[in-house]
Amino acid sequence: MAENNALGDSQTDTGSLEFADCMQALESAEAEIRDAQQQLQAAKTALEAGREPKPGERIGTAGGASRLADAYARRLKALEDAVTTAQKRLDDAYSRRNAAR
Question: What is the CATH number of the domain that holds 13?
Fold first, then answer.
């Protein structure tokens, strides 16, 4: 009978460790989600603010009109890439959390 108790206690300890590991993984994933959400919001805000051309990013044309400089396009592309990267990070964090459940 003592052997069964020892075995049972061992299984209980293992189950408790697995539960604790699972909870730690969930808490970590939740923290990552919160951080990724903040990063995504900041990237979206920067993109919206960055849509306005900065001084020197508008060039006059021969016809008297103006066009946006290549520097504007590069800067806007970098801001869009930051949003894409932040969204992927958030999606990955959601996936990790769902896998830990």
Answer: 1.10.287
